[in-house]
UniProtKB/TrEMBL annotation:
Pfam families assigned to the protein according to its UniProt record, in alphabetical order: Glyco_hydro_88 (PF07470)
Record keywords, A-Z: Hydrolase
Protein name: Glycoside hydrolase family 88 protein
Gene Ontology terms for molecular function: hydrolase activity
Coiled coil: none
Superkingdom classification of source: Bacteria
Record-linked SUPFAM superfamilies: Six-hairpin glycosidases
Secreted recorded as keyword: no
Length: 380
C-alpha cells in the first residue's frame, strides 16, 4: 500500500513538472497565443487598416488637403504589409498592396518622393519588394533608381555631403540613428532583388560608420551626437536596421562580425531595460519617461529576428519578445489603431523635448513595426 502511494506521488510530481516545463516553453516559443492576440490575427487587422486608409500627409495634415508625396511611414507600413502577405501566403492581401501602388505609375505619379533625402530614398524598398514577389521589371527599375541615387552625389550637394561621398559613404549621411533603417533597408532590398554585392557591401560599411561614431559603451545610441538622449524609436530604427542587414549580409563580409557584435550588445542592454509590463520607455534608460509602443515594436522585431536566426538565446530573448508582443496587443484599440505612439521627432538637446512629445493613436510609425513583428513571428 505504501509502495503504491509512493508511485502515485511520483506520477504526480512528474505531471507537475511536465506542466511546468510546458508552461515555461510557451513563454519563449512563438506559439499557443491567447485568442485574438496571435501574430496572424493582429497582422491581418493592421494590414487591412492600412489598405482602407489613404496616404498620410506630412506637413499638409488638414484632412481636406491631398498628400504631397509618399512618406517614409507609409513606406514602412506598405513594406511590412507585403512581408506579412508573403509570410501568410495571402495572395489576395498582396494584390491589395500592389493595387495601391499601381496609380503611382499614372495619375498619382506626382506623389513619388524626390530621391534627395534618406527619408525619401527608402521608398525604393516598396517597388523592390513588388519586383521580388511579381517579377515585373518596372518595379525593379523604379526601386533601383532610389537605391542608386542614394550614392549618386548631386551637383548641389553641400560640402559635408560631398566629404562623406568622397570617402565612399552615401551623400545622405547625417549621423542620425534613424538613417540606419532608411539607408540599409533600401540597399538590402536592392541586394535581395539583384544579388549585386555592391548594395550590401556599401550598406554594411555605412552601418559600421554609424556604429563607430554613435554607439555607446552600453550598446544603446543617442538620437544624434548633439542630442544625447537614448530615444526609443530612434534606437528602434537602429535595432531593425541591424537585424535587416544581418538577415542578408554574407558571413564572409568583412564587416559582418562587427555589426553582429554591435547588434548583440544593443540587445543585451535592451533586455535589462524592458519594463515589468513588457514595453520599453520613450527614452529607454530614464525611468521617468512614459511607455512607448513604436520603439517597443521595433525592439521586439529585432529580437524575434535574432531568435529565429539563432543569433540570440531562444529562451531568454524569445520570452522577452513574446512578453513585449502580448503587451503591445493590449494597446491596439477596437479601430485597429496602436496607441501611445510617439509623434515624429527631430533631434534636440533637451530632455523636456522628448518627454513632452505628443502620443498619437494609429500613427504609421507604430502600425508599421507591429506588422513587422507579426511577419517575423510567422517567417519560417
Amino acid at each position: 500500500m505504501i509502495q503504491e502511494m509512493n508511485i502515485f506521488k511520483l506520477l504526480a510530481v512528474i505531471l507537475w513538472l511536465s506542466i511546468g516545463l510546458n508552461t515555461e516553453a510557451q513563454d519563449f516559443n512563438f506559439k499557443n497565443w491567447p485568442e485574438g492576440k496571435s501574430p496572424k490575427e493582429i497582422g491581418l487587422r493592421i494590414a487591412g487598416k492600412f489598405l482602407k486608409t489613404g496616404h498620410s500627409r506630412f506637413g499638409n495634415t488638414h484632412p481636406k488637403n491631398p498628400p504631397s508625396y509618399i512618406t517614409y511611414p507609409d513606406v514602412c507600413t506598405w513594406l511590412g504589409g507585403m512581408w506579412f502577405a508573403e509570410a501568410t501566403k495571402n495572395k489576395v492581401l498582396f494584390r491589395g498592396f500592389e493595387d495601391r501602388f499601381t496609380p503611382l505609375f499614372g495619375e498619382e505619379k506626382n506623389l513619388l518622393p524626390k530621391p534627395n533625402h534618406v527619408d525619401n530614398n527608402v521608398f525604393g524598398s516598396v517597388p523592390l519588394e513588388l519586383y521580388m514577389q511579381t517579377g515585373k521589371k518596372k518595379y525593379l527599375d523604379l526601386g533601383l533608381h532610389y537605391a542608386n541615387t542614394q550614392w549618386e552625389t548631386p551637383d548641389d550637394a553641400k560640402p559635408k555631403q560631398k566629404a562623406y561621398a568622397d570617402k565612399g559613404y552615401s551623400w545622405q549621411t547625417r549621423i542620425w540613428i534613424d538613417d540606419m533603417f532608411m539607408i540599409t533597408a533600401v540597399q538590402a532590398q536592392a541586394f535581395r532583388a539583384t544579388k549585386d554585392e555592391k548594395y550590401i557591401i556599401r550598406a554594411a560599411e555605412q552601418m559600421v560608420l554609424y556604429l563607430d561614431k554613435i554607439q555607446l559603451e552600453n550598446g544603446l545610441f543617442y538620437h544624434a551626437p548633439q542630442a544625447p538622449f537614448c530615444w526609443g524609436r530612434g534606437n528602434g530604427w537602429m535595432a531593425v536596421g541591424m537585424a535587416e542587414l544581418l538577415r542578408v549580409l554574407p558571413k564572409n563580409n568583412t564587416n559582418y562580425e562587427k555589426i553582429m557584435f554591435g547588434y548583440k550588445k544593443m540587445m543585451s542592454t535592451l533586455l535589462r531595460h524592458q519594463t515589468d509590463g513588457g514595453l520599453w520607455r520613450q527614452v529607454i534608460d530614464d525611468d521617468e519617461f512614459w511607455l512607448e509602443t513604436s520603439g517597443t515594436a521595433m525592439f521586439t522585431y529585432a529580437m524575434i529576428t535574432g531568435v529565429k536566426n539563432g543569433w540570440l538565446n531562444r529562451k531568454t530573448y524569445g520570452a522577452s519578445a513574446k512578453k513585449a508582443w502580448l503587451a503591445l496587443t493590449e494597446y491596439v484599440n477596437d479601430e485597429d489603431n496602436l496607441r501611445e505612439v510617439c509623434a515624429g521627432t527631430n533631434i534636440k538637446n533637451s530632455r523636456a523635448h522628448y518627454i513632452k512629445r505628443p502620443r498619437i493613436v494609429g500613427d504609421l510609425h507604430g502600425q508599421a513595426p507591429l506588422l513587422w513583428c507579426a511577419t517575423a513571428f510567422l517567417r519560417k
